[in-house]
Specification:
This protein is α/β, with parallel strands linked by helices and about 525 residues long. The protein has 14 helices and 18 strands. It has helices spanning about 15-25, 45, 60-70, 80-100, 130-145, 225-230, 265, 290-305, 320-325, 330-335, 390-410, 430-450, 460-480, 485-510; strands at about 1-10, 30-35, 50, 125, 150-155, 155-160, 180-185, 190-200, 235, 240-250, 270, 310-315, 345-355, 360, 370-375, 380, 455, 515-520. The strands form five sheets. Strands 1, 2, 5, 6, 7, 8 and 15 form a seven-stranded mixed sheet that branches. Strands 10-13-12-11 form a four-stranded antiparallel sheet, with helices on one face. Strand 7 (about 180-185) and strand 8 (about 190-200) form a beta hairpin.
Amino acid sequence: MIRKFDFLVIGSGVAGMSYALQVAESGKGKVALVCKSNIEEANTSKAQGGIASVTNLKVDNFEKHIHDTMVAGDYISDPAAVEQVVKNAPAGIQRLVQWGVKFDKTADGEFDLHREGGHSEFRILHHADDTGFEIQRGLIEAVRRHPNITLLEHHFAVEIITQHHLGIEVTRRTPDIECYGAYVLDPDTGRINTLLSKVTVLATGGVGAVYSTTTNPNIATGDGIAMAYRAKATVADMEFVQFHPTALYNPKEAHPAFLITEAMRGYGGILRLPSGAEFMHKYDRRLSLAPRDIVARAIDKEMKIHGIDHVCLDVTHKDPEETRKHFPNIYAKCLSMGIDITRQYIPVVPCAHYMCGGIKVDLNAQSSIHRLYAIGECSCTGLHGGNRLASNSLSEAVVYAEAAAKHSLEHVDEYDFNNKVPEWNDEGTLSNEEKVLIAQDIKEVGQIMSNYVGIVRSDLRLKRAWTRLDLLYEETEELFKRVKATPDLCELRNMINVGYLITRWAIERKESRGLHYTIDYPRHAYDHE
């Protein structure tokens, strides 16, 4: 089955929905919004802390936010991308408000601002401790109302379509690769449909599920990055995987792990050993408010030194009523485990959280493939560099969604549908035995990545990961060629591809920089600022 849309958006987080709404409102054509589960399930909804933007001009300014971003990124960030996001974030906030997103305000009507690690000022807009969920709620309502948007829930994008599918050889040196849409699996029929488009946008989120423990939803399997890489798009900075320092330690619920927002440390939370001893003074003068890479490595080292499986976050010295008011969801979650955070420590552990690299894009969110854009966590804009500054991700998503919308609307009339694209050949069958193999291989990818390509790396561990992933790759590609495509098989392929990219980029960086820390090149391990 062939369907045609002027704009094809794959992914339904804040980036994908922001883009879809802007192009739909232009009236320039029909928009398809593809999400592989339901529209409510995305990394956006898990973002507790908030969205960073300069709004209090009495004490804050763009230069401070730019400086904080460059410092956190270990000066690998692209200054042009940083400036674009910081200066356009306030307009992005207003757009979210117009779409119905509600941010907390003070009694005098100003935004109630939090401060998080690495920020020199209070500039985090939030909605209690479930900001992402509130943003997702507001955008979902706007998307469902819009007559120009066709929502395709529980549809799985298998591959993006290029000249390769017309029988033309495409290599990484091919200068004029074009995207004509995507092959998308329809769960109701089990068939893979051809969705042709004039413009295609990847907004597929992150890669956390390639690790055995992550704060991301299970759907975060790096699909967009893997599809773009297979189509010969340029990717960058894949070694920079951010591990959130404080996921709730709960062995019964590792995937996804419950996030303890960084705003809790901004609020005054103190990191301690289970014994009550503080330890961050050994690693950074900013103590518990140091950037995430430093805090995550410090926790990892303390756990290894003391042979413990978690550390603790302490807010027992804060006013109990204020704590319950600011962090109602965290309070309720911990209480369900028998922990009253106003009187007891919160057990926390670092967890795979955010991919700073991804599909390389320019300031208009264009990838190296013509007519293919990438926005949100699957893209590499250059904003984050070696380490993302807290709450910059939602800002980046809305700013680059607008940049992509503006650029694609200016050029969409120059494109047409490619009617020569063949339909997908979906011969083959899948046995229950093969499903067991897929489930086992998914588990093995998580173990390989967590054990060998985690917070602290070494040449030996990375080489071992490379060897194991290569074997899994060969086995999975052979299976993919002879059976019907299913979502779990496609996810396994993508996870292996992304694991390979993270490992390869980590092997190639012969230094400790930002989120990439290796014991073989331990330069400025804990002391950079």
